[in-house]
Write a structure and sequence with these properties.
The chain has about 400 residues and is mostly beta strands. The protein folds into two domains: about 180 residues, Jelly Rolls; about 130 residues, Jelly Rolls (Sandwich), CATH 2.60.120. It is built from nine helices and 24 strands. The strands form three sheets. Strands 2, 3, 4, 5, 6, 7, 8, 9, 10, 11, 12 and 13 form a twelve-stranded antiparallel beta sheet that branches. A seven-stranded antiparallel beta sheet has the order 1-21-18-23-16-15-14, with no helix packed on it. Strand 2 and strand 3 form a beta hairpin. It is elongated and about 85 Å long.
């Protein structure tokens, strides 16, 4: 005889699972559907932070298509300690703060008009996107040739590992930018600074090196400057002349990304790419600048050659990351947030707001690679795809026939 519990009869306390359905494929089902008719099972009586919870609706109540868990792929400069000095500030996200990000570390920095990020160099390469204002950048090539350039919102620069450089905010609003280092462990606190080297070199060695009396160095700073105020830079050509810039003598270290031609553009938005194919200096970091209109999304895709490190500049979004297992998790992003998608993991980024979504993707690679799900399916025998998905061939024929980048608004 079958017991009432086994049949779902009176007094049954065993969860009753219906047949899996489209949009809710798992047994046991995921999410709020499990609480149907039992509101008490969703009660949260412990300590809560409503302001924080409101930022993550897709984690509080995940889509029923989410399953299991995977390493957390959200972080934010908004929760990163901000180091402030006269002249500007910076905040960073390294692998120590964002465990999943072992290929890229990020820094968000601001320099007031005239503010100087002191002369320095790194043991890793530095890639940067200007997000507001203007900045004068200087560097020296491997051949010892100087470069002095001005960059503005939407422009990039790239300094290979070991090459010295400086940054200075232009008037009237200074400069804000995001840096991406091609090593997740790189920190702003792990920088080779000019003032530190001078201070920790014997005075007689300095005198011998520069051919002057030791007294010339009696007033050097005894502690590093890092960021400090200065006069607003003057005429660019005058600085280039005084630095000995040789026109055409060195590879460009800047790239006007926002002025470049989109590789994908439609009613849903646009994608602009910067990698070694159009920005030869960028040999270890490739990037894509994405603008997604309300109602559109970055199409389902993956990147086979590198992890994707994202920085959200404007708007709001949600992203689901699909992993083996299966694992699928959805979370929300806002301006100032950072996301990370491991190489080869499927994902989309959807604009969930009523304004443009703008974000940057960076990759530790010399070139950009992407596999579009729609493009892949479009280049298979239709019968094969139909056999997998139970979608009629005539419907498959209406699918996009190539990579869209951004889904158009229909």
């Amino acid at each position: 005889m079958t017991s009432s519990n086994e049949t779902g009869g009176a007094g049954d306390t065993t969860p009753h699972h219906e047949t899996p359905t489209f949009g809710n494929p798992d047994l046991p089902p995921e999410g709020l559907v499990n609480a149907a008719g039992d509101a008490a099972s969703t009660t949260m009586t412990g300590p809560q932070n409503p302001a924080l919870e409101a930022l993550f609706p897709n984690q509080m109540n995940a889509p029923a298509t989410d399953i299991s868990t995977q390493p957390f792929f959200w972080s934010s400069f908004n929760i990163s300690p901000r180091r402030v000095q006269r002249g500007g500030w910076a905040r960073e996200l390294t692998q120590s703060d964002f465990a999943i990000s072992d290929e890229i570390a990020g820094v968000n920095m601001y320099l007031e008009a005239g503010g100087i990020r002191e002369l320095h160099w790194h043991q890793t390469a530095e890639w940067s996107l200007m997000t507001r204002g203007g900045c004068r950048v200087t560097t020296l090539s491997r051949e010892g040739l100087p470069s002095v350039e001005d960059v503005f919102e939407g422009d990039l620069w790239f300094f290979p590992a070991g090459l010295p450089h400086s940054l200075q905010g232009l008037g009237p609003d200074g400069a804000e930018f995001v840096l991406a280092f091609d090593d997740g462990g790189q920190s702003e606190s792990n920088t080779l600074l000019l003032t530190d080297w001078f201070t920790h070199t014997p005075p007689d060695v300095l005198a011998k090196n520069f051919g002057v009396a030791q007294e010339a160095f009696s007033d050097i700073p005894l502690h590093n400057l890092w960021i400090f105020p200065g006069d607003v830079p003057g005429d660019l050509e005058a600085d280039q002349l005084s630095a000995g810039v040789q026109w055409g003598g060195t590879e460009p270290v800047i790239f006007r990304l926002s002025q470049s031609k989109p590789v994908h553009e439609n009613s849903g938005g646009s994608i602009r790419i910067a990698d070694s194919t159009n920005f030869p200096a960028a040999k270890t970091v490739a990037a894509a600048l994405n603008i997604v209109e309300p109602g559109a999304m970055r199409e389902l895709h993956w990147h086979p050659n590198a992890d994707e490190w994202q920085y959200y500049l404007k708007g709001s979004a949600r992203m689901t990351v699909f992993n083996t297992g299966p694992h699928a998790n959805t979370t929300d992003f806002h301006a100032g947030d950072v996301g990370l998608v491991r190489r080869n993991l499927g994902h989309y980024v959807e604009n969930t707001g009523d304004e443009q979504l703008i974000y940057i993707e960076t990759f530790r690679s010399d070139h950009y690679e992407e596999v579009s799900l729609a493009n892949w399916l479009a280049h298979l025998p239709p019968k094969l795809v139909s056999a997998h998905l139970n979608i009629p061939e005539e419907v498959l024929a209406t699918f996009p026939r190539e990579t869209q980048g951004i889904t158009p608004i229909r």
